Amino acid sequence: MKVITTALMCLLLAAVWPRDVDSKSMHVPSSRCCFRFLKKIPPQKLIQCYREISSSCSHPAVVFRLKKGQESCALNTTTWVQKYLKKVKPC
């Protein structure tokens, strides 16, 4: 009787555990942190949209998507970025 109970418990754990482990280990955050930032202010007409990066990153920043498909990081604390955020739509 103990052998059957042990076998059933092993099967139950094997059926449940991979889904739980995979859901946690495969988690990839949707945003990445920025470590290099724009030095020159791009013309606003070149910016398509913006997205904010995670608050867990060390620098508060946004990512601007430019019309040519490039993405560039900018510090969220600079005045020109704050002005652009009011005029440009989020991605």
TrEMBL record:
InterPro entries: Chemokine_b/g/d, Chemokine_CC_CS, Chemokine_IL8-like_dom, Interleukin_8-like_sf. GO terms for cellular component: extracellular space. Residues 1-23 form the signal peptide. Pfam families: IL8. One of its GO terms (biological process) is positive regulation of cell migration. It comes from the Eukaryota. Residues 30-88 form the Chemokine interleukin-8-like domain. Transmembrane segments: none annotated. It is found in: Secreted. Keywords: Chemotaxis, Cytokine, Disulfide bond, Glycoprotein, Secreted, Signal. GO terms for molecular function: CCR chemokine receptor binding; chemokine activity. Belongs to the intercrine beta (chemokine CC) family. PANTHER family: C-C MOTIF CHEMOKINE 1, SMALL INDUCIBLE CYTOKINE A. This is C-C motif chemokine. It comes from Phodopus roborovskii.
